[in-house]
Design brief:
Blueprint (H helix, E strand, L loop, with lengths): L13 H4 L2 E5 L3 H12 L3 E5 L13 H7 L2 E4 L4 H11 L8 E4 L5 H13 L3 E4 L2 E2 L2 H5 L3 E5 L3 H11 L3 E6 L5 H29 L4 H9 L6 H12 L8 H18 L4 H15 L15
Length: 292
């Protein structure tokens, strides 16, 4: 995939970009990024579908673009991203840099980049990995697709909420890699849920599974995060099931379009969809462990 034409970093004004930042989307991640960006000394201008009463909140995404020349987007899905981009487009200029951090389809990513390019604005494909606590602690990892000069310009801002910034190709490619990593996370938790059901069916305490896994080659940070909360039945959302299912469906669409089948991801998506249908969409995606 080729990146869309981008203005050079030198064409982006330093006047507001260095001190004034727009945040579009104030969910679990966006709200915490906004707090970190403000703590780092930036003036923030925010907007989300759920109104806020703080002074930084603007009436629309367009108003955010009118107030800030660098914009970070943390909305839920394709439709929300493209709606925000369409609303902002009349206010975008060659002085703007837009970074999309929402996990959306590669197609929506490229369409958003095209909207920015039509206005002469810069655009980075910049999905992140890390859940609620990583965002709160400024420890997100950003995967970046797009022009290296624009990334250099954005780096100080990204470091306000991220501990790692990883260039990973052209616009759309970083998004595919993010979707792939989320597929691994979802499938891992599904396997973990099945393993937990297996040991419990034999009268074995689930804590023994955690002890066994800690000494096993397949132990991971994800297992260390999710298995203890699954054992305690704590499914407070760090990464909601609704959003993980969305990302799994993006992966399944990629498979279909490429002529592949992803049976492990299909089975995991089916388990998540059953939990969503049961009204558990806003709980952590590890809730699938309670259904085994």
């Amino acid at each position: 995939m080729n990146s869309l034409p981008q203005p050079s970093a030198s064409s982006i004004s330093t006047s507001l970009l260095d001190v004034s930042v727009g945040i579009v989307g104030l969910g679990i991640i966006g709200s915490r990024v906004a707090a970190n960006v403000a703590a780092a000394g930036y003036t923030t201008h925010t907007w989300s579908h759920s109104p806020r009463t703080d002074a930084s909140f603007k009436p629309s995404a367009r108003a955010v673009a009118e107030a800030a020349q660098t914009i970070q987007i943390f909305v839920r899905d394709d439709a929300a991203l493209l709606a925000a981009m369409a609303d902002m487009q009349p206010a975008l200029t060659s002085a703007h840099l837009v970074m999309n951090h929402a996990t959306v389809s590669p197609e929506a990513t490229r369409e958003a980049a095209a909207i920015a390019a039509a206005a002469g604005a810069g655009f980075l494909d910049a999905p992140f990995t890390g859940s609620k606590m990583a965002a709160q602690n400024g420890k997100l990892t950003y995967y970046i697709g797009g022009d290296a000069a624009l990334l250099e310009r954005a780096l100080p801002l990204l470091q306000a909420s991220g501990s790692k910034i990883m260039p990973l190709g052209n616009i759309g490619e970083a998004m595919v890699l993010k979707i792939a990593t989320n597929a691994v996370s979802a499938i891992t938790v599904k396997a973990l849920a099945e393993a937990l059901a297996m040991v419990r069916s034999q009268g074995i305490d689930g804590q023994s599974l955690l002890t066994a896994l800690e000494a096993n080659a397949n132990y991971s940070t994800l297992i260390g995060m999710k298995l203890p909360t699954m054992l305690s039945g704590n499914y407070e959302a760090h990464f909601s099931l609704r959003n993980m299912l969305k990302d799994a469906d993006f992966g399944r669409d990629i498979a279909t379009n490429a002529g592949h089948t992803f049976p492990a991801l299909d089975a995991t998506a089916a388990a998540m969809r059953a939990a969503l249908d049961a009204g558990q969409g806003d709980m952590d995606f590890s809730i699938i462990g309670a259904r085994e």
